[in-house]
Design a protein that fits this description.
single chain, Thiosulfate_ST/Rhodanese-like, Oxidized Rhodanese, domain 1, two-stranded antiparallel ribbon, Rhodanese-like_dom_sf, Rhodanese-like_dom, 120 residues
């Protein structure tokens, strides 16, 4: 496990084990990315939206998460490659979330290992 301040990044195999132990999975990719495939049982709240100029931060991200997840819940946060999820975890920790972990390598690493996925 790698740490950056209060942020904990776990490898995909550890994230998969945490999910088996009852952690929830928060997928912070765009809805378009999510619809093409995601971790089974994932909750999708985009950290960024795709616009003509590129990806733009979802200014309501923390509020949307607060509506769905309690601050004391254990959550693995993932995106496509690990960059957005790391930023999302930092924002959630700043908001008072305690049990959040970033999944290093993101959904791309999840697929590469061959873990089960779902399509909407």
């Amino acid at each position: 496990m790698a740490t950056s301040g209060d942020t904990i990044t776990v490898p995909v195999d550890v994230a998969a084990q945490l999910l088996k132990e009852g952690y929830k999975y928060l997928d912070v990719r765009t809805q378009e990315e999510f619809s093409k495939g995601h971790v089974e049982g994932a909750l999708n709240i985009p950290f960024m939206f795709k616009e003509e100029t590129g990806l733009v931060k979802n200014t309501n991200f923390v509020d949307e998460v607060c509506q769905k997840l309690k601050k004391d819940e254990n959550v693995v946060v993932g995106c496509q490659s690990g960059r957005r999820s790391l930023m999302a975890v930092n924002d959630l920790i700043a908001e008072g979330y305690k049990g959040v972990k970033d999944m290093g390598g993101g959904f791309a690493a999840w697929i590469q290992i061959g873990y089960k996925t779902c399509v909407v």
